[in-house]
Amino acid sequence: MTEVLPPTVDCHRVSIRFPDRGGRGWRTVVDQLDVHVAASEIVVLLGKSGCGKSTLLRAIAGLQSVEHGTIAIDGNSVELSRSRLAFVFQEAALLPWRTALENVCLPLELRSAGSSAELRAEAARLLETVEFSRADHHKFPSQLSGGMKMRASLARALVTDPALLLLDEPFAALDDMLRWRLNELILQQNAIGRRTVIFVTHNIAEAVFLSRRIAIMHRGKIAAWLDNNLPYPRTSDLRATTDFARMYGQISQRLAEIAEGATEVY
Q1: What confidence tens digit (pLDDT) does each residue in 150-181 have?
Q2: When comparing pLDDT for 253 and 261, which is higher?
Q3: Is 188 a domain residue?
Q4: What is the residue range of 177's domain?
Q5: Listed residue (197, 155, 194, 203) closest to 175, CA to CA
Q6: Phi, psi of 47, deg, nearest 5
Q7: Does pLDDT of 264 surpass 80?
Q8: Rounded distance, CA 5 to CA 22, Å?
Q9: DSSP secondary structure string, 119-172?
Q10: Which of 10, 30, 68, 179 could make a disulfide contact with 171, Cβ separation 3.0–4.6 Å?
């Protein structure tokens, strides 16, 4: 049997704009942007709030219309590829009338992917992967902490084993220890390169830990591409190394140069 590779993602001359606050004109959020993400690659979109990174991610997911340009997943339109992707939002967005287990079951139910017992078993397995106790499986979102809600949201995204995983600053509101544990989970889930990952963040350390390549965004454009040659597999020990610190410093310097206008944005 021929192995099916995770998809590539190609954005070509993509532009997105929104009405300005006064409603009298338009504000360009993504400006003629080109991005190529290879199969099995983990690419991080890094930049300050408002630079267009979340808007671009939503467009790749088919949740945001594109005014100009094209976005293709494995050469196909986003609409044809939606069944292969999962999206983790900044907010957990769990259904309040469903338990954690039922929320994680939802994507499988929508796809009619197995019997009720099989769905619940797979959802339970993913919840245990994100460190839920059995007792917590049956709690409603109002009974969960913010960190637990995000872990349930991540489990819900992973339950269909998506070929393309899109994450929009999902751990920004979490404490550092939980953030790092979930970062490690993302890498463990992708240890055999079975999916392509695009991760949005403004946290430099998170970008260094996760990425194979980093795209620094600024005012709707890619200001710089940086290769991250730190070896895989990556564990928590990596963050204490001089190589990690060196990469962190390199990115910090590029961000400062871009903010001061010393680096050309293309």
Answers
A1: 999 999 999 888 999 999 999 888 888 888 98
A2: 253
A3: yes
A4: 9-93+163-259
A5: 203
A6: 170, 165
A7: no
A8: 46
A9: HHHHHHHHHHHTT--TGGGG--GGGS-HHHHHHHHHHHHHTT--SEEEEESTTT
A10: 179
Tokens representing 6 are: 């995770």
CATH number at residue 59: 3.40.50.300
Determine how many CB atoms are found less than 10 A away from the CB of residue 246: 12
Which of 255, 212, 236 is CA-nearest to residue 46?
Answer: 255
Nearest-5° angle of CA 263, CA 265, CA 266? 140
Q: Give 219-251 pLDDT, tens digit per residue.
A: 999 999 999 999 988 888 999 999 999 999 999
More confident residue, 266 or 43: 43
* Closest-CA residue to 213 (of 9, 30, 46, 34): 46
Confidence of residue 84 (pLDDT cuts 50, 70, 90): confident
pTM: 0.91
Q: Are 99 and 140 in contact (CB under 8 A)?
A: yes
Residue type (1 letter), 148: M
Q: Is residue 107 part of a domain?
A: no
- Whole-angstrom CA distances from 225 to 61, 78, 214, 246 are 22, 24, 6, 16
Tokens for 255, please give them: 């961000």
The H-or-E segment that residue 77 falls in is strand 76-77
Instruction: Please state, in angstroms and rounded to a whole number, the distance separating the CA atoms of residues 229 and 6.
Output: 21
- Asked whether residue 149 is assigned to any structural domain, the reply reads no
| Residue carrying structure tokens 């919840």 | 127
Q: Give the number of C-alpha atoms closer than 13 A to the C-alpha of residue 15, restricted to the C-beta side.
A: 10
Q: Is residue 77 one of the residues assigned to a domain?
A: yes
Two structure tokens written together for 42? 């983990």
pLDDT class for 114, splitting at 50, 70, 90? low
